[in-house]
């Protein structure tokens, strides 16, 4: 069955290594809703499970235990009905002890749903692992869950009896562009790479979202049907997504809303001022959870200290939802097709293409031929003070503000200055824009006092139109480079 899995080469290799190790393993797999965690485990290990069960969303303790007992019956013909989680895990261990030699793979999916109020589930799981499974060498306990806040707090970073008991953690990330292309090809789609980029800009590399696409329709038609048609599969996905991942998800959504309005991102203090959230450990945890699930990224702007760290929204579906799906109005027939080309679409597509590039930094670095050089991706912005702007003797370059969305700061005394431009054809650099880039670089050098050389890079789907300004560019990165397998 393994051949059915698209991509996931590292995850498959690591899981196979854990399964074949000579000690008991406790593997925690986490990641956002619909990303393909369960599919990965089932496809890789189908037919090898000694026991498998899935927690039920919003079920009572008695329903969860009944569900567990059904799994015991399916795997061991054991029709006992446990009255507590301690009894349930005791029954499981006794049944496994009756098995012969060999690896025993136990897979519990949607583990956080089993931890219902007053169920004492965590204590029973702790006892099962610490006092039984850990002392054997043949138990491979694999647990999975979309509720990231629970997985991180109660399991992976637990401070109680499960502290440091998880032997391996595994984050399942969305597909990259190359994997997205392979997914569509495996299902008979004929999308070209520009269309796949358009798809990725809207819904990202989420396997379930891609599975909803109809191969007889264009990307635009599919997006219209899924997101802007009454009853469309993704019309109510945004709130479900955050509610499934985080406890008190309204605070996470507040942060995402704030970040969606700032292309370059916001500092912690700016976020606090915008959202009115308290500046405490809860906010630190919230931001860490969003970053762990790859909704946002944090980075240190060029030349800034760690305390000036920025937080930037990089999740494609969240960005798309907040720009177009959050109006609550009647979209009308063929809404999305009619939006293409309008100013709102143009503004969003530029931002969305930048997030695609940020998710493919390694491919960009590989295309530039600098993957053997230590590098740090970052950005830079500068806003002159009123005193500088009003000072007649001040340098004209310092009176002018500037922003560069992607710098690749390299250890070979060079900075790759990346211009990320979305276009439906070859991008044409105008005289005005070429001058604008040169002005920004002068300001950047004077503000930062950097002595490094600049390498001008344009990242565009179709490359550059060949004119005198394009010939000033040092390197070009195109869609084909972003699709390269690493």
What would you say this structure looks like, in words?
- There is one protein chain.
- The protein has about 475 residues and is an alpha/beta fold.
- It is about 45% helix and about 15% strand.
- It has 22 helices and 13 strands.
- The chain has helices spanning about 10-20, 35-45, 60-75, 85-95, 120-130, 150-155, 175-185, 195-205, 205-210, 220-230, 235-245, 250-260, 270-275, 280-290, 315-325, 335-340, 345-360, 360-370, 385-390, 395-400, 430-450, 480, and strands spanning about 25-30, 50-55, 105-110, 140-145, 170, 265, 295-300, 310-315, 375-380, 400-410, 415-420, 455-460, 475.
- The strands form three sheets. The protein has a five-stranded parallel β-sheet with strand order 2-3-4-1-5, sandwiched between helices. The protein has a five-stranded mixed β-sheet with strand order 9-10-11-12-13, with helices on both faces.
- Helix 4 (about 85-95) packs parallel to helix 5 (about 120-130).
- The longest helix is centred in the last third of the chain and has 18 residues, at about 430-450.
- The radius of gyration is 26 Å and the shape is elongated.
- The relative contact order is 0.09.
């Amino acid at each position: 069955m393994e051949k059915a899995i698209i991509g996931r080469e590292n995850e498959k290799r690591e899981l196979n290594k854990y399964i074949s190790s000579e000690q008991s393993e406790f593997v925690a797999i986490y990641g956002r809703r619909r990303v393909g965690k369960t599919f990965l485990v089932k496809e890789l290990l189908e037919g090898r499970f000694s026991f498998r069960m899935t927690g039920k969303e919003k079920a009572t303790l008695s329903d969860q235990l009944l569900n567990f007992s059904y799994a015991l019956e399916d795997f061991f013909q054991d029709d006992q009905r446990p009255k507590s989680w301690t009894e349930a895990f005791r029954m499981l261990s006794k049944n496994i002890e009756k098995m012969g030699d060999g690896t025993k793979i136990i897979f519990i999916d949607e583990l956080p749903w089993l931890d219902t109020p007053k169920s004492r589930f965590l204590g029973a799981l702790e006892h099962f692992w610490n006092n039984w499974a850990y002392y054997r060498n043949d138990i491979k306990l694999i647990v999975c869950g979309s509720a990231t806040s629970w997985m991180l707090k109660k399991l992976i970073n637990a401070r109680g009896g499960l502290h440091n008991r998880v032997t391996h953690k595994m984050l399942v990330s969305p597909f990259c562009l190359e994997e997205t292309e392979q997914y569509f090809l495996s299902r008979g789609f004929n999308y070209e790479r520009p269309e796949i980029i358009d798809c990725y800009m809207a819904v990202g590399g989420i396997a379930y979202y891609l599975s909803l696409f109809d191969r007889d329709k264009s990307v635009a038609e599919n997006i219209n049907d899924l997101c802007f048609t009454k009853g469309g599969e993704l019309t109510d996905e945004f709130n479900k997504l955050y509610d499934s991942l985080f406890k008190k998800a309204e605070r996470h959504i507040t942060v995402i809303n704030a970040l969606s309005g700032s292309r370059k991102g916001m500092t912690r203090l700016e976020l606090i001022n915008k959202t009115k959230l308290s500046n405490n450990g809860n906010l630190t945890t919230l931001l860490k959870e969003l970053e762990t699930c790859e909704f946002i990224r944090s980075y240190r702007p060029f030349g800034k200290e760690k305390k000036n760290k920025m937080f930037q929204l990089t999740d494609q579906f969240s960005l798309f939802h907040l720009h177009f799906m959050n109006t609550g109005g009647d979209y009308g027939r063929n809404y999305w097709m009619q939006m293409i080309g309008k100013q709102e679409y143009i503004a969003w597509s530029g931002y969305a293409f930048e997030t695609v590039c940020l998710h493919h930094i390694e491919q960009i670095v590989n295309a530039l031929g600098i993957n053997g050089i230590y590098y740090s991706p970052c950005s830079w912005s500068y806003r002159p003070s009123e005193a500088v702007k009003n000072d007649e003797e001040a340098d004209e370059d310092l009176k002018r503000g500037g922003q560069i969305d992607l710098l690749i700061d390299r250890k070979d005394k060079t900075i790759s200055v990346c211009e990320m431009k979305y276009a439906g054809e070859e991008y044409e650099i105008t005289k005005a824009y070429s001058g604008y880039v040169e002005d920004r670089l002068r300001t950047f050098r004077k503000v930062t006092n950097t002595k490094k050389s600049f390498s001008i890079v344009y990242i565009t789907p179709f490359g550059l139109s060949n004119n005198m300004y394009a010939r000033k560019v040092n390197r070009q990165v195109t869609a084909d480079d972003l699709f390269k397998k690493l």
